[in-house]
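Sequence of HTH gntR-type domain-containing protein (Inquilinus limosus MP06).
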Amino acid sequence: MPPKAAISRVALADQVMRVLQERILDRVYEPGARLNIDALSRELEVSSSPIREALTRLAADGLVAASSFAGFSVAPVPPRDWFEQLLAYRVLAEGWAARQVARRRPAAAIGRMRESLEAMEGGRLGRKARDYLTANQADQAFHEAMLDGAGNEILARSVRDLHPHLHHARLFAKVPQDIAPTIIEHQAILAAIETGDEDGAAAALERHLRASWRRYDGWTADEPA
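Predicted 3D structure, token representation.
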């Protein structure tokens, strides 16, 4: 059994990471802002160890930049064309996964996808990180269940690694987000998978991703459709 002190440190680092993540996503700390460990330690009234651990984990998630000379800072928001490349990649990768799951119809993955839809109904998307947390976690769980069901761990991991940047796209959009369209789109994906419709599953997945991009595209939100 591990020492209680070790468990306490891990739990504290989790809490610190959650606070810092919310502040970064809500732009309390602007992109490029330096994150001084000593200052954060005083502000949050914790030792430097959980601060350093939290920042290191956020760096692994892509929300924080780490330098051996400059220390930690908030990572810059990727440019618009990066998000467009992200969309194209997800259409290819997750479209393939949707086809595989429709072909294989693994019960465990489909069950997880159903559960995520139920969880999404209890959440909402908003302008603050904590506002959309429940819905976002369920949204992510839906896609991860589908990716896991496709049976390609390398592909699943590569898509998971991109999730912090999806937070950026959602939170920096110019308009609040409504979870209802996402639920409807997920229902269409799942319905095609459950009936073994490979083409329909891939098409529904692509429609969902492109619709999500239009909803989250803060750079063109004021332009006519």
